[in-house]
Structure formats: structure tokens, C-alpha cells
Amino acid sequence: AGRLSFFSSEWRKFTSNATVLDYISGYKIPFLSVPKQSFPPKDSWFPPEELTLIRNTIADLLSMRAIQLCEPELGQFISRIFLADKPNGKKRFILNLKQLNYFVEAPHFKMEDIRTASRLVKKRSFLTTIDLKDAYYSIP
């Protein structure tokens, strides 16, 4: 994970945008304050087939170096994990960062809807989809 930083010199050939180059060299989460939890979340229970999927997903994330093992530490912040159904019937691994997000400065943005998208599409327009499944892990 974080492989984009290995190519920062190449990125500088294409852009001088400071924000883009900052992200390439290593994104820093803009915390408003040190995250604190009054108490850790309760342990979760998963059926055996879900537990297998969770363990496999964690093993994949470890092998991609998207996550790393850590030791328990005083003041640690623990976020829950769960599985959500995907439209194709499979399960998606979710790390619920909702509680952590209360400590992060987040810029306001407007999420456009289908009406806006339909106004932008004209006759003979071409559309495509891009699978960004693991692209997130490329950002250091």
C-alpha cells in the first residue's frame, strides 16, 4: 500500500498542483483533536462463514500492506468491522469509522444526484465504469 509515493518524481512531471503532490507523498488525516473513546466498542460475534471471510479479508489487507499488526496501547481508538451485502449477493468488508470521523475536519461537499447526471448526458454520449476496488490502498 502507499505505492504512489514511490513515483512522486513522475507525478511532478505531470502536475504542480500542491494538493495532488501532497496526497502522493503521504496523505495526513486532518484531525481536529486527538481522538478519544470513553469506552471501546463491544466485541462482535460473527457466524463461522462470515468469520472466515473476515479473516481472509484481513489476511489480504495485510499482504497488500494496507494494514499492519499493532499492539494494544493506552488511549487506542478501536473501530468496529462488519459485513454488508453487495448487489451480486457477496459480502463487503466494512471498517466503520463513523465515531473516528467526529474528530476529523471534513470539507463540505455536495453529492450530485441522478437528475444532475441525466442532464449532463446527451445523445450519443459514451459512459464507462472504473473498478477502483484497491486503488484507495495506493495512497500513502
Provide the fold topology.
Layout: H1 8-14, H2 18-26, H3 48-63, E1 81-85, E2 91-95, H4 98-101, H5 114-120
Antiparallel strand pairs: 1-2
Mean pLDDT: 89
Q: Widest sheet: strand order?
A: 1-2
Q: Based on CA inertia axes, which overall geometry fits? A: globular
- CA radius of gyration is 19 Å
Instruction: Tell me roughly what share of residues is in helical segments.
Output: 25-40%
- What structural class do helix, strand and pairing data support? mainly alpha
Quaternary state reads single chain
DSSP strand count: 2
Number of domains: 2
Distance between the termini: 7 Å
Question: Proportion of β residues?
Answer: 5-15%
Task: Tell me about the largest β-sheet.
Answer: 2 strands, antiparallel
Low-confidence stretches: none
The count of helical stretches stands at 5
Order of helices and strands: HHHEEHH
Outline of this structure?
By secondary structure, the protein is mainly α. The protein has helices spanning 8-14, 18-26, 48-63, 98-101, 114-120; strands spanning 81-85, 91-95. It contains five helices and two strands; from the N terminus they run αααββαα.
Description:
It comes from Photinus pyralis. Residues 65-140 form the Reverse transcriptase domain. This is Reverse transcriptase domain-containing protein. InterPro entries: DNA/RNA_pol_sf, Rev_trsase/Diguanyl_cyclase, RT_dom. The protein has 2 domains: 1-30 and 106-140, no CATH class; 38-102, no CATH class. It is built from 5 helices and 2 strands, in the order αααββαα. The protein has helices at residues 8-14, 18-26, 48-63, 98-101, 114-120; strands at residues 81-85, 91-95. A two-stranded antiparallel ribbon has the order 1-2. A hairpin with a 5-residue loop joins strand 1 (81-85) and strand 2 (91-95). The model has no long low-confidence stretch (mean pLDDT 89).
